[in-house]
Amino acid sequence: MIARYSRPEMAALWTDEFRWKTILEIEILAAEAYCKTREDRRAVRMLRKKAQVDVGRILEIESVTKHDVIAFLTQIEEKAGRAAKVLHRGSHRPTSWTRPWRCKW
Known about the structure:
Elements: H1 8-12, H2 16-34, H3 38-50, H4 55-65, H5 68-80, H6 95-98
């Protein structure tokens, strides 16, 4: 985003902070949707309380892992502990895209 061509409201949407906070919220919502056990529900509640985005730490981890999502998940686990295990489940392509023979059409 080029600062001189953007309004502050628009520029705020393109920051790393906003990006990762949005991804965290989506991941927590997905985790809530996929909850099957009491332990999963407890983990989601813990994430809501403890998970915080630290962009500097994400960038630091990414410089080692060379993978932004791994860096994000690692940083969230550092803040929220084992509760982060419920993140990024089922966020991949549906089975029908990767293994069509498993689908009942």
